[in-house]
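Example: GDP-mannose 4,6-dehydratase.
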Amino acid sequence: MLAENTPESQPKTSSKAGYPLDKTPLRSHIRSDVVRMKGPHKFPTGISLMNKVALITGITGQDGSYLTELLIAKGYNVHGIVRRSSSFSTGRIDHLYRDPHDPLRQLTLHYGDLADSTSLRRILEAVQPDEIYNLAAQSHVKVSFEQAEYTGDVVATGTLRLLESVRDVVARTGKPIRYYQAGSSEMFGAAPPPQSETTPFYPRSPYAVAKVAAYWYTVNYREAYGLFACNGILFNHESERRGETFVTRKITRAVGRIKYGLQKKLYLGNLDAKRDWGFAGDYVEAMWRMLQQATPDDYVIATGEAHSVREFLEAAFARVELDWRDYVEIDPRYFRPTEVDHLLGDASKARQHLGWQPQVSFPALVARMVDHDLELARREALVRAST
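Written out as structure tokens, the predicted fold is:
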């Protein structure tokens, strides 16, 4: 349920960062300058003020945080949807927080859920966004085998609920809304590489199947109702903000902890799986560019390079001058019921039509993740030593 922001009822805030969780549109609170980010990833500044409002689902995730930084730097007012829970997971966007009483604030959060169409309609009515970025998902592939029904409800049917809400608002108000749907390279599954926009889907997990459904819902609403709706088929993209249950971050966290004597072994599954890994901060730029085009379309976003999990291991441990073979053991529990062996994206269309290309190389990506997690491990070691 959304918290009302009225003189009689102060906006509800998180105990951690105090984010305003309200329904107040902020069209009148547009910055007169362009925010320069102080975080580890700096987006280009000097871009003219866009005077736009964006709504992001999944705003507290890796991609949501980088996208929020990008849009605020471009002068947007950003609204995010967060699920109500007993704890707040706003760590990735804490640095963007401004006091809810600040008239120049550019970030507002709302309680809502892709499983609740009523909350989606309420938020759309309140925010009146120019652009919507649907990034929310149960996105862990291995977990999707254990929670298949939940994954399908949030990822597939949740997308349908949001699209239907957008269609309804556009039909009733006449306001144009541009919609971005987060696709995944997992939709290609067992399809032979390289994979492009014309490659047939061959999903190999409940998560991938749900993403394929969300993809076709988006295409259908574009063709049936004339919505400006785009699918971004993003290949694996990582950063130091990646969740620690994902293999790349699991590796870099272990490297830091092993280096500081906090961990002895790292247990993994299939080391031969190959993925096209890029930097998440680069990929959110592609999302934004899709919604700035004259006509909606679907795009693959990828680096065009594939590396195995073993290669990632070698690069990560080499960063701290360790041999990964001394620390890594294979645990069959981490193998998927149906493996995806090789994902390699062909982003030629995005390069040609969006003018997009990745900026962070594979070695640089591994290095920044390891360096970040080394610092986390160093702090953890200091805390342990002091207790």
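The chain has a mean pLDDT of 87.
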